[in-house]
Design a protein that fits this description.
Bound molecules: S-adenosylmethionine
CATH superfamily of the largest domain: Vaccinia Virus protein VP39
CATH architecture of the largest domain: 3-Layer(aba) Sandwich
Number of helices: 11
CATH class of the largest domain: Alpha Beta
Radius of gyration: 19 Å
Helix content: 40-55%
Oligomer: single chain
Structural class: alpha/beta
Largest sheet: 7 strands, mixed
Number of domains: 2
Strand order of the largest sheet: 3-2-1-4-5-7-6
Length: 243
Amino acid sequence: MKKLINLFLRKLGYELKTISSHNHSQSKLLAEGFPEYLKESRKAGMDVNDFINSKLGNPAYDIQIILKKELSEFKSPIFCELGVGTGRWTKEIIKILHDSQDWKIYAVDHSEWIVDFLKNYFINEKNVIPLLNDGLTLPFPDNNFLDLIFCQGMFIELKLSNIMSYAFEFSRTLKPNGIAVFNYIDLKTDNGWNHLRKQSTILSSCFTYHTTETIDRIFTEAGFVKIKSLLLGNSTYSYFRKL
Ligand SMILES: C[S@@+](CC[C@H](N)C(=O)[O-])C[C@H]1O[C@@H](n2cnc3c(N)ncnc32)[C@H](O)[C@@H]1O
């Protein structure tokens, strides 16, 4: 029966497929709160990223502080954004990259739901390439080809072993002199410490806490030199250059 239906559907460019409900709900779970944000934004008649920005703040200003200078180093930046959500930072990065030639953004996430969403959302941005990964490694067979890796709001919830696996992946895929920028919550800062205090009353808190020494040691071991760090709100942005 399915074959018969498919014979007919293929002529129209469609196909009938069985999707495991387990995989679908697992992927939605990995997508954190974004499926719910999408639902709410539709109800409000808003673009999902405008909707999230109205709740969490607009990254348009922060991106200038966090990335503008680093991006200006590269003429034709090959960029990887890891842990993308619905792409509210990607939209701002695109605005900066539009001034460069031959730029590219690989938008990598471990949730199939997120990657499917991004493929549709950025359908007209041919230089944005959403890719699924396994949550531990980067989905690139090539080494030494990226200029910049940016990871916003993801290391704040990763355990150290996961951060270490990504540090080595960043080192494998970045060109020499390429830059990795990410934020995490640093217990050496008062902001980080106070964040921990507040979260200690929440059973399902998703945040993880690290120190400058552990993060620096991991990235040094992976072949990076630290450029700078920047405290913005509760989290610390770290900048590492590959040797
Ligand atoms: C808190 S959201 C941040 C999303 C986006 N950067 C933002 O600020 O709006 C974390 C994102 O990282 C993804 N993520 C979490 N752990 C991951 C992992 N180990 N590998 C790849 N993606 C991951 C989630 O699916 C989600 O899209």
